[in-house]
Amino acid sequence: MVKSCDLCCYFNYLQYHHFHVTLTANRRSIWDTSRTSKSNGPPFLLMFSIMLTVVLISPIIEELIFQYFFQRVFLPTLNISRNIIVQKYVSIISPTLLFILSHIITGNISFQSIFIGLITYLPLLFLSILYERTDQNIVYPIAVHILINFMGMISIS
């Protein structure tokens, strides 16, 4: 398996040797360090940027798209039903199903991947209910989503 530092090293090698692009002192030291490094783990900066993206940036963007846009802006304009209770259920379930689909689509869609995705992400229906119950205040679902992703990152590392 190719590590990201190997790809970076190879890219720098191509730039320097084949395309005669001069490396800055900083990139040259990174290249030398990555070539001579004996550590098996990814660099700290890479792990930090992944953690920042997964724990902070992604939950904010996902909640703004799925909760705010779909649940508050898009679905009410469709006038799906005259019954307010049906509209509330549709506005709670639809963003959750879209969220689940966006996370389980990996190019190999099968009954098994959909089933596992539903089991894994269906508890996130709580985020839609929370958004609805807090008078559509987006801060609470974002905070819970950040907490869920943080706990997931802690359990992985």
UniProtKB/TrEMBL annotation:
Q: Name one Pfam family in it.
A: Rce1-like
* BP GO terms, sorted: CAAX-box protein maturation; proteolysis
| Molecular functions per Gene Ontology | endopeptidase activity
Extract the InterPro entries matched here: Rce1/LyrA-like_dom
Q: Which residues form the CAAX prenyl protease 2/Lysostaphin resistance protein A-like domain?
A: 48-151
- Domain of life of the source: Bacteria
- Supply the alphabetized keyword list: Hydrolase, Membrane, Protease, Transmembrane, Transmembrane helix
Q: Where are the transmembrane segments?
A: 44-65, 86-105, 111-131, 138-156
Indicate the family of this protein.
Belongs to the UPF0177 family.
Q: Can you say what this protein is called?
A: CAAX amino terminal protease self-immunity family protein
Q: Which organism is it from?
A: Pediococcus claussenii (strain ATCC BAA-344 / DSM 14800 / JCM 18046 / KCTC 3811 / LMG 21948 / P06)
Output the lineage of the source organism.
Bacteria, Bacillati, Bacillota, Bacilli, Lactobacillales
